[in-house]
Amino acid sequence: MSKPLEVVIVGGGTAGWMTAAALVSVLKPNICTVRLIESDEIGIVGVGEATLPQMKDFNEAIGVIEPDMMAKSNATFKLGIEFRGWGPKGTRYVHPFGKHGAAIGGVAFQHQWIRAVLNGHAYDINDFSYPIVASRQNKFEFPAKDASAINSTYSYAYHFDAHLYSKFLRAFAEPKGARRTEGKVVAVTQDPENGNIASVTMESGEVIAGDLFIDCSGFRSLLMGQTLESPFEDWTRWLPCDRAMAVPCDRSTDFSPYTRSTSQKAGWQWRIPLQHRTGNGYVYASAFISDDEAREALLANLDAPAQADPRPLKFKTGRRTDSWKKNCIAVGLASGFLEPLESTSIYLIQVAVMNLLRLFPRTPIDPVLATEFNRLVDVEYERVRDFLILHYHANPREDGELWRHVRSMEVPDSLNAKIELFRRRGFIQPYRDGLFAPPSWLSVYAGQGIAPTGYERLADNLPLGEVVPRLDDLKTRIADRVALMPDHADFVRDYCPSPAAVDPAQASSGIRGAVA
Amino acid sequence: MSRPVAKLVVVGRDAAAWLTALGLQRAFGRTGLSVGVVELATTLSPVDAYVALPTLGGLHRLLGLKEREVLAAAQGVYVLGQRFVNWSGGQSGFVHAYDTQPMGVNNVELAQYWIKARGEGMKVAFEDFSLGATMAKQGRLSLDAELADGFTRPAYGFHLDARAYVGLVKAHALRGGVKLLGDGLGEVHADGERITAVETKAGERIEADLFVDATGMDAALIRRLPGSDFESWRAWLPCDRLLATSAPRLDPIPGFSQIAAFRAGWIGLYPLQRRTAVIAAYDSTQVDDGAVLEALPVLTGLKPQGEAIVSALEPGRRPRPWIGNCVAVGDAAISLEPLDAVQPHLIQAALSLLISLFPVDAGDMAEGEAFNAAMDLNARHVRDFQIAHYKLNQRRDDRFWNRAREAAVPESLAYKLDLFAARGRVAVYDEEAFQPPNWTSIFLGHGLMPRDYDPLVDLLPPQDQVLQMQRMLKFIAGEVSVMPTLQSQLPSADRGASS
Predict the structure, then answer these.
(1) What spatial distance separates the first Cα and last Cα of chain B, rounded to whole Å?
(2) pLDDT at A514
(3) N or C, fewer C-beta in 10 Å, chain A?
(4) Which residues of B fall within a CB distance of 8 Å from A371?
(5) Any chain B CB within 8 A of the CB of A31?
(6) Which of B23, B19, B122, B96 is nearest to B358 (CA)?
């Protein structure tokens, strides 16, 4: 056995504390020691208050108790993301955390759905997804454990205040041995022989050395970008949004168990309900709209009074060529940025942390581990990127320069081929690692109005006359079971009430449902 | 307006032709597809055998072939893995068992604990922690063992008498509605990227919407289309000759194929119920056919009986097996030596892709590119698995093996080897037939010992690691000792298939 690896995390926030919490809870002091440097003076970006179901796995893996975490971070449940105004005019769809329907006669559900539609049955695919039907009625309960039950066909994630979640993780990680050091890093020292990061020097003059440095410094990318000069790959040509305005508003009566994304003239607006307020933001491309216009548009589309002035954020979409270089690993924004359209920011932190655990190094660090880490992270980034591009590129919205631009831009060939195969025959390519699974692609293809003209021929083995009653039955079973579910607001109040929660009766019932 | 494919014609022979025809008939026969076969004379001899991975069992279920009937008809034998001898030192070699392997303690693979223990002097071989390898070596098999969690799950593939198997599949296909359109191939008519018609030997002209080329290395249909060039893989796979023969049956029947390296290639023994199939693959520039035949009794301990059939081997593939309205399967698409039982697997992979991408429009088969992309990955990963055996050999006295060890390997394999050598981890990609347990088994088996193990192993106190491993060995020994012999589990033709 070798001596424990000294891990130094530069930067707190969600990335820093998720890394620290995972290392101290999964590993033991004989394997590594964890020191985290953060400064109260440096604000955190507070990436993504909306998460994906993998977040639950992460919390379980490190031993977080769900209702405790939820109460302390004002969390609510999330069954999917509603997209308003992304498909044909006046429509909306949900990307659910669950599948649509179930295979019928050994053939993936969508083929029988397409077949029924092509034969004149006007089925809305959303009616065949349990979490979508539940979302529409603002209902929530835990999925059934019995895999044959209709209400087992979904998973869930959280909306939370990322700042409070970081605080929660800090309180969780410190007693387990994560050592926090307050202050700013003023200098970084490299080993002259191999270029490894040897130490960081604090404003106080303290020199902190380590074996492995985790860069959680956010967009600054202090170690990976500035010190190790890993180049930034710019993806703005596919994803032109580069700014956001964020503003919280009062909790409204519409306490939805889903994130909402509403398309706007030069981007889109998010809406994330928490127990004490609702988070909102307008992600936009500065090439197509001014900051002032964006601020006004945001404020005009809130469903309750704003609680503050909108806060501007700037970003650049892309990622560092290396996420792991020498003895440094960038986690979170220090490694790259993808707009939060599919709530992937925290997921990408989680991917980095889990891969670090799978490839945990010893000193001297074997460079092959870094190569493998980067390969795994690249797969994730690229798959999320292509999925995001799909939302923009396959979008019929006519008004606004941005939308004309993204529809006509060149996209990766692989994406065009995927879209074409769906249009032709409802085919969805499965893949081994990474987001997103076929049900996610299906919801976006269908929701954005890519109408398939064909389907897998195997579907024809079952007479249409037998398929239609089964589709009807499925729809009915979903509707009947959802009717028995409790309201999301009641469920949260009973399960994980936050002291800061706003009483639903007092919630603002202002403008319901923003523009679409 | 799109028009569905109404008529499909398979031109070819043997397993590639009949499995594909039967599979497509089962999938689409009821939806109005007519499936016909223009059959070419078999190239199989009575000594040939098919060697298949466990996935073939799944295909049989889809095709409506009952496993016991297949085994009874084709002298079939269950096989739990492949035993490699004389490749990389050690008298008894190692067994690559087809087990799936569970996670070890703390979500860390069992292999990581073994790597650490080995480094500390433990003598027990990695395969001894595999239920399948232990069953294989003891010639035991339980078809319905209920196993505790946390242990390897054995899986079995098959050895099948080739001619009898094809006969069975063909009869099943014809009963199921596949039409036999004629014997022998005459002219092939092509126009641009389309096969317009084929003629039988008798001169009958047959048109179809979609053609399947199962003509083997001749690639008689697809070679007529532009862009169908063959890409040789000989630089990585050095054998260019196959010799097939037969030997008396082994008694008792072991649970593995035995793959023994010799100075210029390898010799496989594949037990069947009433004989043992023997296949040698070698480099004809290093050893001639006669010498291989003469050496067989010494190398295998078995005396060949029946004829010995020599054939040329040209490893490689056509990067675009689907062009226009023609899909190549089997050797017409990809030709590999029979190492690792890959051949039926590649037929099966093409069939299942063709079913899920079956063209929706007879006039515009845009699905071909997706099919080609997936088959490309599939083929290259399987090829890498074969090359790994050559690359990792430890035979120091033969030119053939020294060259194989020193040869550069494809980048994808070089990376897998590097990562494994560092840490005992397997890099996995999309469309891989062989999974991390398979790669781990052959890497460790051939002696690629990782420099380091996962530090997370040390989460478990050393004394618990030892206890854990002892517990596994004891469990496996106990389970296997009460299993019936593999031989007693085989349905023979005379005993009937109903049991």
Answers:
(1) 53
(2) 37
(3) N
(4) 415, 418-419
(5) yes
(6) B23
